[in-house]
Write a structure and sequence with these properties.
By secondary structure, the protein is an alpha+beta fold. The protein has two domains: 18-74 and 233-280 and 306-335, Cystine-knot cytokines (Cystine Knot Cytokines, subunit B, Ribbon), CATH 2.10.90.10; 85-94 and 104-226, Immunoglobulin-like (Sandwich). It is 25% helix and 28% strand. It has helices at 2-13, 19-41, 52-58, 63-70, 96-101, 177-185, 258-261, 283-288, 290-297, and strands at 83-90, 105-106, 119-128, 135-146, 152-164, 170-175, 193-198, 220-227, 239-240, 250-252, 255-257, 266-268, 271-273, 276-278, 316-321, 327-332. Strand 15 and strand 16 (327-332) form a beta hairpin. It is elongated and about 80 Å long. It is found in: Secreted. Acts specifically as a negative regulator of skeletal muscle growth. Residues 231-336 form the TGF-beta family profile domain. One of its GO terms (cellular component) is extracellular space.
């Protein structure tokens, strides 16, 4: 409703505004549209109430995420190609009944975006505590399933032999793509998993919960999924700056700052160049761009109004935390 009212205000007062005033109104409308568009695309009724301190606790101190943050490139990629999205899901504590059965059990609340047919890869990451000597560790993954008389049973589904050196702890990963696909096809049988990493002396080196000193070291699943490509029209138009005296429809620079929004749940980018359009639509321009012409016809007061629309929108790459506290790296369409 706020967006519609703002749009009506622009339409009714467009002729009375100076060029600079109208640009400012166009800019503010664009910012409001970006906010609502991001929430709509991510299927959020409102921005997640996640503080910076919560973000620090949620982010795993592990290679997949640290590499993304270190090498993060805010430039917009070409949206004509198929794209991938990376979703990181942290382990959570199981319900009390399951906890009695499995001391090292973990649950993973997977994003509904993850489907069996769109999974490119799936890795389970486990942090091992430091070993005081060179040793061989057997990383084991067992699935918790309901048994007879209400008792849960363990079924070993993966095992990995790892040689580790003495010294600092380390992250280890295990391929679970086929397992994850099976779990998604039979969600009713997913009661959680047990993770162990026994050394030669029978000591379990796996970190399975965020105990004091182990924050950010609990297990997580890294899933890469495939997005379908979308094609966009390729057109050119005018580019102007704020000091320009151009009155025709033109693209102006606009930087969106998510920190100014108070959106700490967006990890990266903290800001990006979104741009906005403003100006008058001439007759020839309306003929060349039918969509702009249709919007212009809806403005009975003349050509000065919200007729100036983009002919191409491009996506941005974003790392964010959703309401389920999943860390997601994906492409948000139509942001530039």
């Amino acid at each position: 409703m706020e967006t519609i009212q703002t749009s009506r205000l622009l339409t009714e007062n467009g002729e009375q505004c100076s060029t600079c005033d109208f640009r400012e109104q166009s800019k503010q409308l664009r910012l409001q549209l970006i906010k609502s568009q991001i929430l709509s695309i991510l299927r959020l009724e409102q921005a997640p109430n996640i503080s910076r301190d919560m973000i620090r606790q949620l982010l795993p101190k592990a290679p997949p995420l640290t590499q993304l943050l270190d090498q993060y490139d805010p430039r917009v990629e070409d949206e004509d190609h198929a794209t991938t999205e990376t979703i990181i899901t942290m382990a959570t504590k199981p319900n009390p009944t399951a906890q009695e059965e499995l001391s090292s059990c973990c649950l993973f609340s997977l994003s509904p975006k993850i489907q069996p047919r769109n999974i490119l890869s799936a890795q389970l990451w486990v942090h091992l505590r430091p070993a005081d000597m060179v040793t061989t560790v057997f990383l084991q993954l067992s699935q918790l399933k309901p048994g007879r008389e209400g008792n849960n049973t363990r079924v070993r589904v993966r095992s990995l032999k790892i040689d580790i050196n003495a010294g600092a702890g380390s992250w280890q990963n295990m391929d679970i793509k086929s397992l994850l696909q099976n779990w998604l096809r039979q969600p009713g049988g997913n009661y959680g998993v047990e993770i162990n990493a026994y050394n030669s002396r029978g000591e379990d080196l796996a970190v399975t919960s965020a105990e004091p000193g182990d924050e950010g070291l609990q297990p997580f699943i890294e899933v890469k999924i495939l997005d379908s490509p979308k094609r966009a029209r390729r057109d050119s138009g005018l580019n102007c700056n704020e000091k320009s005296e151009e009155t025709r429809c033109c693209r102006y620079a606009l930087t969106v700052d998510f920190e100014e929004f108070g959106w700490d749940w967006i990890i990266a980018p903290k800001r990006y160049r979104a741009n906005y359009c403003s100006g008058e639509c001439e007759f020839m321009h309306r003929q060349q761009y039918p969509h702009a012409h249709l919007v212009n016809k809806a403005n009975p007061r003349g050509t000065v109004g919200p007729c100036c629309t983009p002919t191409k929108m491009s996506p941005i790459n974003m790392i964010y935390v959703n309401s389920m506290e999943n860390v997601i790296y994906g492409k948000i369409p139509s942001m530039v």
